Amino acid sequence: MSAAIPPWLDRLFVGRRRALPRTARPPVLIRLRRALGRLPAAAPAAVLLPLATILVLAGITHLVSVLAMPTLAERSAYQRLSDIARPNTLTFLPDASPSGMVLPMTDPAFVSAVCLYDLGDHPLRVRVPATADYTSVSFYTSRGVAFYALSDQAAGRVIELDLLSPAQRAALPEDEEITAADRLVVESPSLRGVVLVRAYARYNDTRPAIRRQLEAASCMPS
Amino acid sequence: MRLLPLAFTLAAAAALGLAATYAAVTQSRGLDVVSAGAWQGWPRSGTTQADPYARAGFARSGELPLELADGLMFLATHDSAGAPLDGRCDLRISGPLPQARVWTLTLMDAEGRLIANDAERYGFTSNEVVYRQDGTIDIVLSPRARAGNWIPTGARGRVKVALRLYDAPFSFSSDTGGGADLPRIATERCP
């Protein structure tokens, strides 16, 4: 009977068979290895030298751009906060929510406030009364490097400290009773930066109370 | 005639170098990564010893990393078996937690945003979570409502989880020993 395959179907199969790779190994790899094998014979200096130059220059570009990033970045934490906060005053950050947060990766369980400081004229005095729960104060340079932190556990009822620039710290008389007066002195590596005050709200409905307690915190030039 | 190859070399080098920088500052949070099971932590990124990659990444993203004396954050983007965390699946986070005065666990989408839901639940804190008899935790991340400790994932594709330990009395400067003390993450059921 008509067991013969129609010619159009046969052609289709032949086409399929040709489309399959001849060997199990991907041809790209084989071609690459052959090309690499021919490379030294083909034109060693003409190809390898520019290639090496590109790699070395790319490495230098990479390192320089990584090192320059903190100075060149335009949306760093300090710059973001400058839009909403005035220097040397405590400003509460809006609660983290799905619609956004001022600083990325903010812990939504915390009430946060910031104080942008400028030690150009005066040192900064930071005073944060401990709230009912975990409270901490951390310090960052204007480039976002954390250099000091203190929690209520370590400080006691009130976290109280003076932030000084290296020059102001050096100008402090050695024998002054400033350290004896139960006051911490912290030296900032940069003139400007961020003080981040955070208090933990264990439940969502304790948040307003924690926020009220944190409103007693202050940061001002001394 | 030598000008064209030179221009090409310089352009290729600049493109390659800047691409590597872009990849580094968007993907990496520093070189001092400490892995513990599914979790990764960067203890030195919250100190003045932060390496250039950490500094570059934070300057670009605008994040203020947790200062190490304050707390330490661990991030998980994959489960304990190595599969990427998928918000359409049921994910279970279970096991013991290290000693800490406070811990919080937060669910985010791939870009680090919180995931909107009617319950306004974005994670659990050490005070909210219901512990098991033996003091370990058992939290389920799922697009569908579940009994017990449930965080809605809103059926997002890729999600990530941040575990923050505050006032933890131990040091993470060295390795933590194979993740014995951080919870496991398991993908249980995928649609």
Defining key terms:
heterodimer; A: 222 residues; alpha+beta; Immunoglobulin-like; 7 helices; 37% helix; elongated; B: 191 residues; six-stranded antiparallel beta sheet; four-stranded mixed beta sheet; 2 helices; 10 strands; 28% strand; transmembrane helix (chain A); transmembrane (chain A); membrane (chain A); Putative membrane protein (chain A)
Strand content of chain A: 15-25%
CA(first)-CA(last) distance of chain B: 61 Å
What is the domain tally of chain B? 1
Mean of pLDDT of chain B: 88
Q: How many E-type strands of chain B?
A: 10
* Strand residue percentage of chain B: 25-35%
CATH architecture of the largest domain in chain A: Sandwich
CATH class of chain B: Mainly Beta
Major beta sheet, strand line-up of chain B = 1-2-3-9-5-6
Transmembrane segments (chain A): 47-72
Pfam family, one (chain A): DUF1254
InterPro entries (chain A): DUF1254
Domain DUF1254 (chain A): 110-212
Describe this structure in words.
Chain A is α+β, with helices and mostly antiparallel strands and 222 residues long. Chain A has two domains: 66 residues, no CATH class; 145 residues, Immunoglobulin-like (Sandwich). Chain A contains seven helices and nine strands; from the N terminus they run H-H-H-H-E-E-E-E-E-H-E-H-E-E-H-E. In chain A, the strands form two sheets. In chain A, strands 1-2-8-4-5 form a five-stranded antiparallel sheet. A four-stranded mixed sheet of chain A has the order 7-6-3-9. The longest helix of chain A has 29 residues. With 191 residues, chain B is an alpha+beta fold. Helices cover 18% and strands 28% of the residues of chain B. Chain B has two helices and ten strands, in the order αββαββββββββ. In chain B, the strands form two sheets. In chain B, strands 1-2-3-9-5-6 form a six-stranded antiparallel sheet, with no helix packed on it. A four-stranded mixed sheet of chain B has the order 8-7-4-10, with no helix packed on it. Classes of the chains: A alpha+beta (222), B alpha+beta (191). At the A-B interface, helix 3, helix 4, strand 4, strand 5 and strand 8 of A face helix 1, helix 2, strand 5 and strand 9 of B. Chain A: This is Putative membrane protein.
